[in-house]
Amino acid sequence: MFSATPTKRPAALIATAAVTVTAALGLSGCSVDASKAKPTSKTFPYTGSALKLTTHEVATKVVATDRKDIKVTRWFDAAAGTEHLVWRLTGDTLDIDSGCNGIAFCDAKFKVEVPKGITVTKDGTKTLEGRR
């Protein structure tokens, strides 16, 4: 017995979905640049002498300043995807991450301002050596 309406095969549905997503992303411009995004900041009180910084491979600049706390500034731009953001200080470890999940086009960068005199290890590599 034949049906009057043809059934689509799974491969055809996947191909149609892929073409639709590609076309939609092409129309969105997909040009993302964190340096053009509006920055957001968060500060953390800190009295330690050494800081471990985990960046999850997000571009991060570390700067020694006359601050008494730690200031993290983030620039983030996305054309598609679901954003995830982490910036937390637990003990002597500052964990920062920002990016997109799913079919995503995004860009992020951070600047971490630390008090002069503390030693900073960024992703396992000594970045700033404490000097007062």
TrEMBL record:
Residues 1-23 form the signal peptide. It comes from the Bacteria. Keywords: Signal. This is Lipoprotein. It comes from Streptomyces benahoarensis.
